[in-house]
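User: Quick sanity check before I run a bigger batch. Here is a single chain. Can you write out its predicted 3D structure?
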Amino acid sequence: RHRLWDQRDARRALPAEALARLAAGVTASEARHSGEIRICVEAGLPLSYLWRGASARARALAMFGKLRVWDTEHNNGVLIYLLLADRRIEVLADRGLMQKLDDADHWEKLVGQLSQHLTQSNMQQGLQTAIEHIGALLQKHYPLLKGQINANELPDSIVLI
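Assistant: Done. Predicted structure follows.
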C-alpha cells in the first residue's frame, strides 16, 4: 500500500491553495504566541521503514527531528504528522509544552477531531481546526508579551512528502 502512494497523492489531498491557506493559518497562530507549529503530510512510508516494520509514530519522531521541531528556544514546537497510506495521525509536542500539560488525553482528543475531518475527506478544515486548537494551547502557556513578536524559528509552510 505504501509503495502505491507518492507525493502526487499528498498534493491531490492538499492542493496549492489549501497549502497556502494552512501556512497562513500557522503564521496567524504564531503571531499570538512564541510556539512553533509544523505540519508534515506523507503519502507512504519510505522503504527502509517498511523493511524494518517501523510505525507511523516512529516516522513522526524522525520527522520531528529532521524538521527541527525540537530546536526552539522554549522547547515549545508541535508537529502534526499525517501518514496517508495508513490514515494515521501523530501529534508530537516538545518537552517544554508537555511539562505544562496536565491532561494526558489532550492529544488523543485532537487526533480524534482531526481524524473525523479526514474521514469526511475534509483534510484542510481538519488541519485548520488542529492549528487553531494547538495555537490556543500555545497562547495559553506561551503568550507573547505586549509589543513582543514571535521570532518564527521554523518555516510555516506545510511539508509534503
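The first strand starts at residue 36 and ends at 42.

User: Great, the batch can go ahead then.
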